[in-house]
């Protein structure tokens, strides 16, 4: 990099901190007939950047700009005229981008994104085969306690939650003694995510879930207790509460597709009524 460019970059470090500066726009770099000007680099510098940061940003951009221009020049030299004709591709991309932005603008303004429980329930009942589980899921309570386990006999009784008052006792105990206490009794989770937090190695998860409602495990430092309150197995239909948010997204996406289709048809019919196009 020449001394003049370095001076300009250093100057840029001070300019970036002074928004009232009205200096000219000198050339920073040149490749063949392409020029890079200081104003372009100025735009990249965040407000209040230090001189050092400004120099790094400017140097990186200049290097990348030069590499890009050299690559374009080499490509133009080696590609046929037919291969270089990308104007149609550029125009297609520009049109697609503008249309997409316009569609998103209308969707954000006008699309109804409120999905009722009745709509979710109906979709779930109409398409149950779309919601087969690909993994086992459980509702469970997970407890991890450091050894030696305080009041071991007590916790081994109350974690089974056979009486309503056991919940309060369990919460009090875990608040005082447990390293981790996760209550997933009202929430479905993947069973593997739960089992992976224990030292147990389960070869057949389905058999394990069928045979174990309560189980304990330990390693050298912790004791683990799990109460499996409910489970659903792979290939069964997922509970509605497990997939309701997925269904909501599906319904909204279907609305988007229909909204865009209706919008395109409306624009076409409006233009047709006003003779804005002609088909020969």
Per-chain topology:
Elements: H1 3-15, E1 27-31, E2 34-37, H2 38-44, H3 51-78, H4 81-84, H5 87-110, H6 117-126, E3 137-146, H7 152-158, H8 165-177, E4 180-190, H9 191-195, H10 205-211, E5 214-218, E6 222-232, H11 240-273
In spatial order, strands of the major sheet run: 4-3-6-5
Distance N terminus to C terminus? 59 Å
Task: Tell me the fraction of residues in β-strands, as a range.
Answer: 15-25%
Shape: extended
Defining traits:
280 residues; alpha+beta; two-stranded antiparallel ribbon; 11 helices; extended
Task: Report on this structure.
By secondary structure, the protein is an alpha+beta fold. Helix 1 crosses helix 3 and helix 6 crosses helix 11. It is built from 11 helices and 6 strands. The relative contact order is 0.10. About 4% of the residues have low confidence. The longest helix has 34 residues. Strand 1 and strand 2 form a beta hairpin. Strands 4-3-6-5 form a 4-stranded antiparallel sheet. It has a two-stranded antiparallel sheet with strand order 1-2.
Would you kindly provide a brief summary of this structure?
The protein is 54% helix and 16% strand.
